[in-house]
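FW: tagging you since you asked about this chain on Friday. Here's the raw sequence from the shared folder, copied in full. Didn't touch anything.
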Amino acid sequence: METLGWWERLSAARAEKLLTQEQLASRIRDLAGPESALPKPPDLARMIRFWESGQNVPRPMYRTLLCRALDVSVLEVFGRRPRRKSAEADRPVSTPRPVVDEHLGDVLDHLSSQWHLLVQRDNLLGPRHTIPGVREQIGLVMELLAPARGEDRLRVLRLAARYAESAAWLYEDAGEFVEALRWTDQAASWAYEADDELMLAWTMFRRSQQAMADARAGEVIGLTEAALRRVDRLPTAMRAALVQQQAQGHALDGRETLCLSLLDEAQELAGQVNDDGDARAGHGAFVTPAYVDVTRAGCWSHLGKHARAVAAYEAALPKLAPVYQRDRGMALAGLAAAHAHSGQVEQAAERAQQALKIATTAGSSRIARVVAGVNKTLVPHRKKPEVAALRVALANAAGL
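HL: got it, structure written out here
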């Protein structure tokens, strides 16, 4: 047994328990518990097949679960520093590369479907409830990426970039900006290797959103312009997202006429996209006509025309689809800010409280930051009951 590789010891331990790979996968799921974000048993079975071939080394979490399911010690099966079969064998560089599992296409199709479900989950529940699932799926995709070569590698890279970009957005919404930047860079790197022009363009959009959060108008405009140079190849939904983002950059610069013209263009593009809240219409599918209406309201605020912003937010809010709860939260927060700058104290505090409730439920620091800004604007009115109540609510939500 000492001369066997860890992958052979793993296979032997499973055989000794008279378990198929599918049965072992089910045991692992049971051990992890019903709340676990682990892949489903068919996908775990495929991972076990990879591991038993020695093509991939299971991550520590999986090594622990495997050995618990087989009632053996981790050290007994994997030793202290398990390496891939090719490394263990110390073969020459010219040795043929391992063949990727014949069911790779099925796994990627499943993971692609899971990505759409995670997008929908994010829209409904927010980053707090979605980040663990996305990170777990990224781990699985990276397991597939290590042995993949040629066209198989390109297919895995495209999916990996999509998951990484989603992680970037989730961390941005959760207020973890270092992680958001890291995953944006990772998405761009994988997209570049895969020659995925659309994903590269979308990482420019993500970067522009991050710049917008800090009011860096030049970056917002420059990044969206860079992505829009590929306009002949961009899907309608992505173009709508980029154009409305560009409009916001020009609003920061005080260029009202150009801003409004771009918003009209985005509105027309958004009207051509069918969206169910799971991004099946492509990146940018969340930019519905109602979303552009909310963006227009925000632009009025950036332009210093807060009364027009209040009217625009009030008109847009009833049009937002229920699936986009955080968009509603951001719109309410923006409306609260517009009320505050217009001197409408009670309305500002009331709308801010509504926005904060959504922020707390979804774990959205992005919304909470806007509400905190409203609270700061209302400091001169802190003795009013509505403002005092908002201050207490913010203190209770301090963990966001």
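FW: Residues 6-79 form a domain with the 434 Repressor (Amino-terminal Domain) fold (CATH 1.10.260).
HL: agreed, and DSSP finds 20 helices and no strands in the chain.
FW: great, closing this out.
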